[in-house]
Amino acid sequence: MKVFEEVDDLAIEIASQALLDGNLVAFPTETVYGLGADAVNTSAVNRMYESKGRPKDHPVIIHISSIEMLSKWAVDIPKSARILANQFWPGPLTIILKKSDLASDLITGGQKTVAIRIPNHPIALELLKRFEEKGGFGVVAPSANRFGAVSPTRAKHVLNELDSYLVESDVLLDGGNCEIGIESTIIFINDNDFKILRPGFISAKKIIQTLQMSNIWISESDKHHQLSVSGNLPNHYKPKAKVEINAIAHPGDGFIALKNIQTPNLAIRLGEPKDDLEFAHSLYSNLREADQLNLDRVVVNYQSFSPLGIAILDRLVRAASR
Ligand code: TXA
Ligand code: MG
What we know:
- By secondary structure, the protein is an alpha/beta fold.
- A hairpin with a 2-residue loop joins strand 9 (185-190) and strand 10.
- It is built from ten helices and 15 strands.
- Magnesium ion (MG) binds at residues 142-143, 151, 231.
């Protein structure tokens, strides 16, 4: 895979052309790194699934650079979806809508809906814009990790994990550390049916305020509406080390907690974020470090009822599930 450590105009040109030519391009977003493929190129999308080891019935998110592209991918777009898009895009919100004919079964997992977002990262936006200027419609980009593993928040995570599954003509754009660090909030909208399928930085509270609703359903499981959300598999976002939440740390265990909490005797401090924002930002790289150090067990000490805390706990519970 070709790695661009400095992403200048030439790198964007090469990467956008690589996408159009059917290659894979890993790129930074404000949430996590994505592994991009041209959303209308069947063989590119197939290779994206294969290199992630992801089952084909797990749908992917289409990334676009402007709201105008929304109507290419979705039909019967409710007013509420437009309000949310105007308010939060570019940003860490993925909206699930009724799909257009352009969205193939391969990217929707055979469902009648499609997931779309505009990421808020200069490199991602430039890449998508250039790709669309060249005639592209959108880029599917799941997190650039092997299926079920921890999402990458740095270019080197992508390189370590996917290099052996990618080929010479694929590209990695290094945009440094992802600012938010956990995946986008996913909201399902159908007429007056709203559901948060994956909590994230854009909280239920912000969505409720924006839409002036009284309440919103936060889905614990997708079964009820038969939506397939791979992030909803209980054992997603897992490092190799066994993760335990709010357990007692023993000597040799990894330990992650807010800065004001002391490291237990002989535990190995992997992270000491100062607040929820930093917790989200550093969580995945701290978990990856546990694997790098070959630790058997990581204790994460965390409690929070803040909106972002709900998203962090969602990832922790999945990382800790067996
Ligand atoms: O922050 C993010 O969303 C990152 C960056 C790269 O944009 N992407 C990401 O993609 O997290 P991925 O593939 O790891 O997670 C996408 C989630 C999956 O849980 C998938 O099941 C869900 O979106 N999804 C996609 N299409 C869907 C649909 N039509 N209905 C319900 N869920 C859908
Ligand atoms: Mg993922």
